């Protein structure tokens, strides 16, 4: 009888101890829920929707067309802490675009991530729409965080999302080029091709530049964010071997000793994004 009584007492003590430990221990989901609840309480003016473990609010439904997974979209995102620290964001000078069904795929810190809630929230917007997503840590960077970006362990991530109204690449190019020019207080003329240009010096050479001219040039090519992707000094080219943007703009605009700056839409460059070139022609030869 004593043995049975001792066993029951020991078992009861173990249950009490386990229950006590269980109450003191917070799961990742508990931490996520507490963080998200606190954010919602501090932003009670917003009405969040809770679905599949995450929360979102549509701040602007958009006035454009509906989108489906097979549609091309141009979009923006900003990954933040819930206190407002920005970890990663897009640039309106280098706008990402893909099919809606692929908007959940990201490269952050040279690592590939898939955030399914991002695509799901995008799908609830029309073109021109905006939304804020609260991504719990278990659906984001987990207990390890991402130290290179300052993202801590079990951190809830706020993602601000937007769909541009643009449906075509040339529309996005025009937007990016105009934004770049305005932001930098520049003045450019616009060619019928869509290229923006500014002639610094027309040149003094007598040989007219034609499609088959051989040119000696100094040049620098940049993306609109200022990154230099190519440059050269006293480099010899045949014009018809260069990108369409150069072939369109150099003939009739400048000659030897001439200088010009051109901003080339993607379809007249390398196809991916607009390009910004400073070009100085030092010599023109027509065989």
How would you characterize this protein structure?
This protein is an alpha+beta fold and 287 residues long. The protein has two domains: 28-167, Chitinase A, domain 3, CATH 3.10.50.40; 170-285, Chitinase A, domain 3 (Roll). It has five helices and 15 strands. The chain has helices at 2-24, 28-42, 116-122, 169-183, 244-249; strands spanning 49-51, 54-60, 72-81, 86-89, 97-99, 105-108, 111-114, 130-135, 157-163, 189-190, 196-201, 214-222, 228-238, 258-264, 275-285. Strands 1, 2, 3, 4, 5, 8 and 9 form a seven-stranded antiparallel beta sheet that branches. A six-stranded antiparallel beta sheet has the order 10-11-14-15-12-13. A hairpin with a 5-residue loop joins strand 12 and strand 13 (228-238). The longest helix has 23 residues, at 2-24.
List keywords for this structure.
alpha+beta, 5 helices, 2 domains, seven-stranded antiparallel β-sheet, elongated, Chitinase A, domain 3, 287 residues, 15 strands
Overall pLDDT metric: 91
The level of helicity is 10-25%
- Helix and strand succession? HHEEEEEEEHEEHEEEEHEE
Main sheet?
7 strands, antiparallel
CATH architecture call of the largest domain: Roll
Describe the structure concisely.
With 287 residues, the protein is of the alpha+beta class.
Secondary structure elements and pairings:
Layout: H1 2-24, H2 28-42, E1 49-51, E2 54-60, E3 72-81, E4 86-89, E5 97-99, E6 105-108, E7 111-114, H3 116-122, E8 130-135, E9 157-163, H4 169-183, E10 189-190, E11 196-201, E12 214-222, E13 228-238, H5 244-249, E14 258-264, E15 275-285
């Amino acid at each position: 009888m004593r043995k049975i009584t001792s066993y029951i007492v020991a078992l009861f003590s173990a249950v009490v101890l386990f229950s006590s430990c269980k109450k003191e221990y917070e799961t990742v989901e508990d931490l996520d829920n507490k963080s998200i609840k606190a954010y919602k309480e501090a932003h009670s003016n917003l009405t969040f929707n809770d679905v599949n473990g995450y929360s979102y609010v549509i701040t602007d439904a958009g006035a454009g067309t509906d989108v489906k997974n097979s549609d091309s979209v141009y979009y923006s995102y900003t990954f933040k802490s819930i206190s407002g620290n920005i970890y990663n964001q897009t640039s309106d000078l280098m706008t990402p675009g893909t099919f809606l069904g692929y908007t959940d795929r990201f490269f952050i810190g040279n690592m590939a991530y898939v955030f399914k809630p991002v695509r799901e929230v995008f799908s609830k917007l029309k073109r021109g729409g905006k939304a804020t997503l609260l991504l719990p840590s278990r659906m984001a960077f987990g207990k390890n965080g991402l130290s290179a970006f300052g993202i801590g362990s079990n951190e809830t991530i706020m993602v601000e999302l937007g769909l541009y109204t643009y449906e075509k690449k040339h529309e996005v190019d025009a937007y990016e080029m105009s934004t770049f020019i305005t932001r930098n207080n520049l003045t450019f003329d616009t060619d019928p091709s869509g290229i923006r240009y500014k002639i610094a010096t027309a040149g003094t050479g007598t040989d007219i530049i034609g499609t088959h001219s051989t040119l000696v040039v100094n040049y620098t090519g940049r993306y609109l964010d200022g990154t230099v992707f190519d440059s050269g000094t006293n480099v010899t080219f045949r014009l018809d071997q260069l990108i369409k943007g150069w072939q369109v703009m150099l003939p009739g605009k400048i000659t030897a000793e001439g200088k010009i700056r051109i901003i080339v839409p993607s379809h007249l460059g390398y196809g991916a994004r607009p390009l910004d070139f400073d070009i100085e022609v030092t010599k023109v030869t027509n065989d």
